[in-house]
Amino acid sequence: MKPMGGKSGLWMLAWPIFIEIFLQTLLGTVDTIMVSRISDDAVAVVGISNQLFGALITLFTTFAGGAGILIAQRLGSGRNEEARTIAIMGVTVSTILGVAFSVSLFLYADPVARMLHISRELIPLSHVYLTYVGGGLFMVGMTASLGSAIRNTGNTRGPMYTGVAVNVIHILLNYILIFGMFGLPEMGLSGIAVSTMISRLIGVAVLLYMFSSAFERRIRLPDFRTFHRKLFAEIVRISWPLGLNSSSWVLSQLVIYSFLAMLGAKELAARTYLNTLESFCFTLGYAIAMAGQIQIAYLFGAKQTQEAYRAAYRTLYIGLAIVSANVLLLYLFGRSLLGFFTADPEIVAIGVSLLALNLLLQPCKMLNMAMGNSLNAIGDTRYTMVVSMISMTLIGVGGSYWLGISSGWGLLGIYCCMIADEAARGGLVLLRWRKRKVLSQAESQFAGRQQGVREKPGVACSVEL
What we know:
Elements: H1 6-36, H2 40-76, H3 80-107, H4 109-115, H5 123-135, H6 138-151, H7 157-179, H8 189-212, H9 229-263, H10 265-301, H11 305-339, H12 345-377, H13 381-406, H14 410-435, H15 437-454, H16 457-464
Main location: membrane
Transmembrane segments: 12-33, 53-73, 85-109, 129-149, 161-182, 188-211, 238-260, 280-300, 312-333, 339-361, 382-403, 409-431
Subcellular location: Cell membrane
């Protein structure tokens, strides 16, 4: 793994992550449009099913994310074998979790559909989608863990190329199978399920090949039986706060969307369209934050605590500059962009009235993401979990209901609370980083080990001989 210091290292890590996420978002939009060609019922089934899948995938990405942080730290400290072992266990556990949920969805698709309150007339469609797409969900877990391990070795291009190829294959197969091209029968929603399974399988195969040679010693199939209790406990220790953090965010967003539904269909539609535009606006900032996390974890593992401390601010400043420029463009051209989604003047007016608030919301999100990821990179995941859960519950959810629903501020009140939530979390994680608590502890431990080595010259001499 090459050293990851300075701006060039950050950009080299960030741009492939950006390309991967941007094209996934773009192709996901195209995918939704193609589903809409089947029927509105198909869109409804896919939409609500993907909400469930997203919540389950959080479990996979959480464990994989924790393992990824430790991989970068171990590589930074030169402990390549430990990094290799952590990567193997991360992939194994994510796969086991994925298989358990996949089997459950495959066997109990109809009860799950009823639990999601899918109407009776949509049960046949949901059965197809939940059974086959949900049944292959374990491949998403494998993709997440393999991609995370590979990225945290410094190779962000490999997962990017794979992700782009898989999404393109998925779109092409969708077109062929949904509409029955080249003499094939029209498969409708079943075609989407088959397309998803095939494209995911191809992605897993490519990433497995890439993963096998990601470390100095090649990874072979028998190696997946590897289990190291101490390292596994370390992965769990750093991962479970990330998991609660991510789960809390998913839950808070679902609750806030339920508040939006209470306001009315037009408000919900306006927020949905704005969310799509905001996603494109924030993509590069998110990639910078993810790249910063990898870089800081590597530097922290290499005991370069001063450089790790400065790297967080470099990530923040670059991210803020990019996100601020993007959100300014969104503010200037937002009315025209909303016109691509809807011709309803009332929905456009609601969306336009919120564009100015994005000038505050997106930079606050960047502050929270950059500094929160920096704390996660050095293992301070419990603090970010506690701050996030309290802020999202009291300010994000509680404030949104109070201002948006009870006080009658509507969507404006909900947006104000979203800004306050992001600003509060961002300010607290920034304050935590400035105090350097974990970094100072690491420096003291490192100094103690150095002092211990100096006090044992005989050992040093024997090593040199």
